[in-house]
Design goal:
18 helices, five-stranded mixed sheet, D-Maltodextrin-Binding Protein, domain 2, six-stranded mixed sheet, 397 residues, 13 strands, alpha/beta
Length: 397
């Protein structure tokens, strides 16, 4: 059984050991605001981490704060009684102007209450190599056709237009969510809520676009590794990658200069409208926390601009507080485009539906990436809908 932390410390369970310095930096700003700093404890294996959280939350061995995922993954453990209600933290953030994002708030909600605050907020954007674009003589595309022109220009020069892994990982969802949401934001919301079908026209069109991009030579091999991207950008062998802005730091820490790294929101396909996929982690309070009041105090102070400046500065990513943007050119470029264009925002597919449904469908999408034909696309969507029919019944039972 774990013991309460020192008098001015609250414990935080998470799955990312490399974030310890960031938590410490945020904790130094939390201390004068809440009276408490953070003591992070990390389990690097995500599957093990999830199992330990579920097991320890039912005993006296839980930590005070828990890092989790929003959407249906949050609802899954909120309905199990693992998390405490932190609606007051959202109310305070809205009152103070730290966050007025009602769409994001809804993804932290179960039965009308919020069970966590945003640990981070990332946008799925197209990272690009500025030197590669300069060599190709292309500008940042603002239309789908211009994007295709960039793809064709890179392919003609022997440069991989887009790095896109996912043959064996969750990353297979990235282009699926992007194309479906880009074609029809409202349909994406209906689909992920179980009120539309994977065999409907929008999904068929999205898969056709994805297949056509493969046929055009747009993508790397489907077993591409994100860890290889910085070197490829530096060497000029890859031009673009669609990924979460949380990966900005990995580029900068591995040889890519801030001045050489750019990012933009992918223009919507014909007939679509500007919309962006958003990923947001969760800082949750354990219902069985040793220091329940202290954990609530930290949750209420987490979105304070002072805390967010330290935290987002460490992550080199955007914040749930739109007024806080780190001094990183790539991130500032994304934040400026979001402010200027005000795209609709959609939750990442990984968190947007019941976990078992998503994890099975991700495997279907991975199989498509290995054989990205129109015939395989039809099979993929059929299998995804069969799983949806089954898993939505399980979820609502």
């Amino acid at each position: 059984m774990s013991r309460p932390a020192a008098a001015d410390v609250v414990s935080l369970f998470n799955d990312n050991p490399s974030w310890a310095p960031g938590f410490q930096a945020a904790g130094s700003r939390l201390r004068p605001l809440s009276g408490f700093r953070l003591a992070p404890r990390a389990v690097p294996n995500v599957s093990n981490y999830q199992q330990i959280v579920r097991m320890s939350a039912q005993t006296g061995s839980t930590t005070d704060l828990i890092k989790w995922w929003n959407g249906y993954r949050l609802r899954d453990i909120a309905r199990a009684g693992i998390l405490a209600d932190v609606t007051d933290a959202w109310d305070e953030a809205a009152r103070r102007g730290w966050s007025d994002d009602t769409a994001l708030r809804s993804t932290f909600t179960y039965e009308g209450k919020q069970y966590g605050v945003p640990l981070y907020k990332s946008y799925y954007v197209v990272f690009y190599s500025r030197p590669a674009f300069k060599r190709l003589g292309v500008d940042v595309p603002t239309t789908w056709q211009q994007f295709l022109d960039v793809v064709d220009a890179a392919h003609a020069k022997g440069i991989t237009p887009i790095s896109s892994g996912g043959a064996t990982s969750w990353e297979s969802l990235i282009w699926f969510q992007q194309l479906v949401n880009g074609l029809d934001h409202r349909f994406y919301q209906e689909l992920t809520a179980g009120r539309a079908s994977y065999t409907d026209d929008v999904c068929r069109r999205a898969m056709a676009l994805w297949s056509d991009l493969y046929r055009r030579g747009a993508f790397s091999a489907p077993d591409a590794q994100t860890t290889d991207l910085p070197a490829q950008f530096t060497q000029g062998t890859t031009a673009m990658c669609l990924y979460g802005t949380w990966n900005t730091g990995a580029f900068l820490d591995n040889g890519v200069k801030d001045a050489d790294l750019g990012a933009f929101l992918l223009p919507p396909p014909p007939g679509g409208a500007r919309s962006v996929i958003v990923e947001s982690g969760v800082l949750a309070v354990s219902a069985n926390a040793h220091k329940l009041d202290a954990a609530h105090a930290v949750a209420r102070a987490w979105l304070n601009p002072s805390v967010q400046t330290a935290w987002s500065g460490f992550l080199r990513d955007t914040s749930a507080d739109p007024g806080v943007v780190p001094n990183v050119g790539t991130v500032r470029q994304v934040a400026a485009q979001v402010r200027r264009e005000r795209p609709t925002q959609a939750i990442r597919y990984w968190e947007a539906s019941p976990p078992v449904l998503i994890e099975g469908n991700v495997q279907e999408l991975s199989a498509f990436m290995i054989n990205p034909t129109r015939a395989q696309a039809t099979k993929t969507l059929t299998n995804m809908q069969h799983r949806a029919d089954k898993e939505w019944k399980v979820w609502t039972s």
